Every structure is written in C-alpha cells, then in structure tokens.
Amino acid sequence: MVQPARSAPKVVFIARESPLNQSAGHTVFLRGFLDACVARGADVTVLISSRRVGQVVTRHAEVPFELRASGVVRVGPWSVVWSPAVLAQAATWAAFRRSPPAMQRLASRLRDVWRERRGVDHVLGDYPGERRGAWLQRQLTTIGPDALFYYTFFTHPGVDDLPAVKASYVITVDVLSERSASLKARGYRVVPDDLTVDVEIEALRKCGDLIAIQWDDAARFRELLPETPVMVVPVTFPVTVRQGEPVAGRCVFVGSAALHNADGLKWFLEHCWPEIHRRVPGSSLAIYGSVTARIESPGEGVLMFGEVPSLDEAYEQAAVVVVPLRAGSGLKVKLVDAICRGVATVTTSVGAQGLLAVEPRPFALADEPAEIVDAVVKLLTDGAERRVLEDHARAAARLFDPTTAYDELADDMRAKGVSLT
Questions:
Q1: What is the CATH number of domain 10-235+404-415?
Q2: Domains 10-235+404-415 and 250-400 share a fold
C-alpha cells in the first residue's frame, strides 16, 4: 500500500532584520540556521519584526525560504516594499552599502552625532511595538506553524493569545544582560538601559526552550532558568583548507560596524599595531567589513577593503587573524570562521568567550597590548609556530560542522512532533 506523502513541517522564525540584510556575524548565524532547516525538509517562513527588510525588491526563486514583513507586498514572483517608512530605511541602507568609503565614513560620523544627541552608543534590541506585534500575531495565526523560533526575546510580539505550536524556542545569541554590563563598564550608553538579569529571565520565559550559541552561555542560562531546557546550536561553517602560503606579514581583521568591533579595532590600531608594524617590517593589516566606515586614520601598513562579496581571498592571504575585542558576549563568528578555515588567530578573552575550554586551544590568547604584540609577531615570524596553531584550528573545526551541529535540535523537535529529516 502506498503511503500518502508527508507534508513538510511549517517552521517560522521571527527576526529583527532580514537574513539577507548584511553579512554581520548574527546574520551569518541566522542564515546558516535557516538553511539547515530547509535542508532537513522544513517549509520555512521568516517574519521581520522591524523596518529592517534589507532589500527593496526580493525575487522569491532566489531565496530558499519565504520572507514576510509589514510594509512589504507580494507581486507575482517578487516581494516589494510599499511602505514609505520601510522603503526609506531599505533605500538608505542600500545607498550606504554602495557608497564609496569616504561617504560611508561621513555617514557613520553623522550617525554618531545623532546618537550622541540621543544619549545612545549601542542598541541592544527593540520590541516590535503594538502595531507590528499585532501584525506578527496575524501572520502566525494565518501560517499555523508547527515550530516557532524567536531570534532573541526582543522579537516576541508582546501579546498573550498567540496560536499554539508544537515546539517553541528562543535563540539567545548571547546573555544580553551581560553584554549590556560589559559595554556599560567601558563607559558606553546602551538601550534599553534597564536590561537586568531579572528582566532578561522574565522575557526569555515567554518564548519557550532556550538555544544558546555557545557552551558557556548555555551553562549560564541553566543557572538562570533551571526549569527551562537549554541546548547549544553553534554557528556553522564548512571546513576549508588553505590552497597556498599566506601573504608574508599579513594580518586580517573582519567585522561589521557594530560598537564592539569598532571599539576593539580602534584600540588595537592605537595600542598594538604600530609596534607590530615596527617589529615586522613590511607587515600589513587588512580590514574587511563595514567597520571600516568607523575608522578615520588607520595608520601605516593598514589596508581597508570594506564589505566584499566573499572573504575567501582575505583568509587565503591571512597569516594571522586578530580578534582584539574588549566588550561584548556570546560567540564571535569571526573567530569561528577563522578556525574553520584553519587560520592562526590571536584573540582576547572577550573574543574567545565560549571556546576557552577547547583543547588543544585553536588560537593564541592575549589581553594586554604587549602580550598581543608579542603573540602576533611570533606567529608572523615563526612559520612552525603558526602551522601548529593552524593544525589546532582544523581539529577544533569539527565543533562547527553543519552536518551535525543541528542534530540535538532535530531530535528535540522530533520528540515534540515536528519531524525534520
């Protein structure tokens, strides 16, 4: 007897911005998560809880999941932004990404002035608000998902009468109250400014089971919410092998314009790079990502590439990747990417959060400027030492294998009646 075809489980993600919006670490993580669900047979819809839709026009055939946002309509094979407010945000972001570096730096300065007047240095997140909360509620009722994922608790619609689902999760990315405290300790003003541990716990309880991006966060969440199941789903990357030798003396930094990246890079440029460049004549620091818009005077030996379609060439040329972060929390996607490409890395303790227990350690750890300088110089001048660290990176890359990283989640969903392949 022929069994009827099983319909694909409906899976909905609610995110604050489109996964097509940029190539920052949190976006890379979300896109990998979505691709994994699609690959395992789910019918995936992404609901955007803000104006950050990314593209003015999206062709459905080019995206393996459905994107929906308030202010966006479907016209045949296209999704088109019609809301003036959403259109203005999308057009502004598109213009920024296409503008030359000098214009990006000017726009970044103007944004800093605007935030200074508002008394804001960093936005941790914002809730959908009443109108978008009602829109999210209607979408969930229409779709009737089997499984629901909140990409941080800030995406919860804020209403109680949501449709029942078989499985509900919140992807935490990091312990946001700890990120807030970390940035405040550096003197930065964050919004919301009242995000305490108790506030975070209450918000997480509304969303379902917890998904942590790294193991230290998972342990912390188990302390904070002992009654709530917690699992780890790390960012995933395919393991790649360098095809040749790196460019002699080449250091690489990759990062978005997020505050913690700009803070760490500016500090590194001021306190570490001049001495590295002096001790290793001919060395260079290549900076990739939108963080370049926040760097005014990088200094001698610094190359600023901005956003590029692919980072393959950057990592192929890198002798050393630097992750000199001083604030923040969670798992640093840039560090994982370097590990999975088998590149030697020097990182601070903040940059290595969640991976400090990995042995053999796939990076050199240093926090003080003199320590960072010595570690980078050692790897730039000692090929044998660099190759040992590269071997350790390749060994650690198994932790982020996309073929296995989602197995625990798939088993949990299956136990709740949502079967992925």
A1: 3.40.50.2000
A2: yes
Neighbouring-strand partners of residue 13: 46, 149
- Residues 149, 34: Cα–Cα separation, whole Å: 10
Q: State residue 101's pLDDT score.
A: 75
Q: What is the pLDDT of residue 235?
A: 87
- The whole-number average pLDDT for the span 158-168 is 92
Q: Rounded CA gap, 175 and 332, in Å?
A: 13
- Provide the edge-to-edge strand list for the sheet that holds 364-365: 302-306, 284-288, 250-254, 320-323, 345-347, 364-365
What tens digit of pLDDT does each residue of 382-398 get? 999 999 999 999 999 98
Architecture of domain 250-400: 3-Layer(aba) Sandwich (3.40)
User: Are 146 and 418 contacting, i.e. CB atoms less than 8 angstroms apart?
Assistant: yes
Spatial separation of the C-alpha atoms in residues 217 and 290, rounded to whole Å: 27
- What does the pLDDT look like over 167-201, one tens digit per residue? 999 999 889 998 898 888 888 898 898 999 999 99
Listed by start position, the domains of the chain span 10-235+404-415, 250-400
What is the maximum span of the chain, computed from C-alpha positions, in angstroms?
Answer: 76
